[in-house]
Design a protein that fits this description.
334 residues; alpha/beta; Rossmann fold; seven-stranded mixed beta sheet; 9 helices; 11 strands; globular; binds adenosine-5'-triphosphate; binds iron/sulfur cluster; binds magnesium ion
């Protein structure tokens, strides 16, 4: 297949036993080679937990309580990231899958020059490289993200937020990973800058051939820049579709609400006016469909039975899935 990452039945909890918060629930997700996959959902829906779970970077008390994450190396057998040794994981991160964390633009070390931070990443994975070669590569990486080489000598505070973000992206690309995961890299930035950065990432993806998982609240950005979109609610994926199809024909009432609450193009973010009520409390999830207390179409069944994520009857092929009782799904094992 052309899959590069396959997440199967992933479950992530914070804490153990009765105290556990079940933050990612039975998630199945496939990332294909060269695609941009957008992951959207309100705050607390589990987007970051999913991203950190599949790279095994969960902060304590996060624990993976089930599932597998198959990574398809070029030409080799798939390996389960969840079963890698620590040495294998170190080689996997950065070199195979790089992640740009939420708030990353503020995670550059303020006391070190940009050059030092870039060359440190290169050296950690290639200790035998010469200082001159590392510096040349650092300059090249800045060039990739549209920053002039003379910025190598800058300290982070001398750069704008957008530039710091680009430096982080350049750093993530340092070892030519096959997968780049960006967790809301741009929320603190101006919308215009957000668009520029995303456009650049998509161009780089085309030139360098990596795949992207892009996480954001802002569905309008995803519709514009991603190939496929997965929508999360209460720790589950409730809908997945190509971005064009999700935009034209959202099937899950929650996706519909998200699309109706596009933030204003300029100015501060608005509340999700399209969806009344607030996200579910993971400690006391509603039974049945967890969206039912907020759903304008809820029926009695919705409060009792969890809808299965499946391919809706009027679509052929597994690219389109939805978990909602309004949409009967195929039962032929898709
Ligand atoms: P946002 O859009 O705000 O970044 P998110 O979709 O990334 O939200 P997560 O950060 O993955 O959501 O959080 C999912 C759930 O897990 C939330 O209910 C959150 O309170 C809980 N959670 C996250 N981190 C921890 C933690 N370290 N300990 C306990 N619970 C946590
Ligand atoms: Fe609404 Fe029911 Fe569909 Fe859930 S399953 S989204 S409550 S109609
Ligand atoms: Mg998050």
């Amino acid at each position: 297949s052309d899959a590069v990452l396959e997440v199967r039945g992933l479950n992530v909890d914070y804490g153990l036993g009765d105290e556990a918060v079940h933050a990612v629930r039975d998630v199945d997700l496939t990332l294909h080679r060269g695609e941009v996959l957008g992951l959207a959902g309100e705050s607390g829906s589990g987007k970051s937990t999913l991203a950190y779970g599949l790279t095994r970077l969960l902060p304590p008390p996060g624990v993976i309580s089930g599932g597998e994450v198959l990574y398809h190396r070029d030409g080799g057998e798939p390996v389960d990231v969840l079963r890698m040794s620590h040495a294998e994981l170190r080689a996997f991160r950065w070199a195979e899958t790089a992640i740009v964390f939420q708030g990353a633009m503020n995670s550059l070390n303020p006391v070190h020059r940009v050059s030092t931070q870039l060359t440190d990443v290169i050296r950690a994975h290639d200790p035998r490289s010469t200082p001159a070669a590392r510096l040349a590569r650092a300059r090249e990486l800045l060039g990739l993200v549209g920053i002039a080489g003379d910025r190598l000598d800058s300290y982070p505070h001398q750069l704008s937020g957008g530039m710091r973000q680009r430096v982080m992206i350049g750093m993530a690309l340092a070892l030519e990973p096959k997968v780049v995961i960006m967790d809301e890299p741009t929320t603190a930035l101006d919308v215009v800058v957000q668009r520029q950065i995303l456009r650049q990432l998509v161009e780089l993806r085309e030139r360098l051939g990596f795949s992207v998982v892009f996480i954001t609240h802002d569905l309008s950005l995803l519709v514009e820049f991603s190939d496929r979109i997965a929508i999360m609610y209460g720790g589950r994926i409730v809908e997945e579709a190509t971005s064009g199809e999700l935009y034209r024909n959202p099937k899950h009432p929650y996706s519909h609400g998200l699309l109706n609450s596009f933030p204003a193009l300029r100015g501060p973010k608005r509340e999700l006016s399209g969806i009344p009520g607030s996200p579910p409390d993971l400690r006391g999830m509603p039974p049945g469909c967890s969206f039912h207390p907020r759903c304008p179409h809820a029926t009695e069944r919705c409060g009792v039975e969890v809808p299965v994520l499946g391919v809706p009857h009027d679509h052929v092929g597994p690219d389109r899935t939805v978990a909602c009782w309004l949409h009967p799904v195929h039962d032929n094992g898709f």
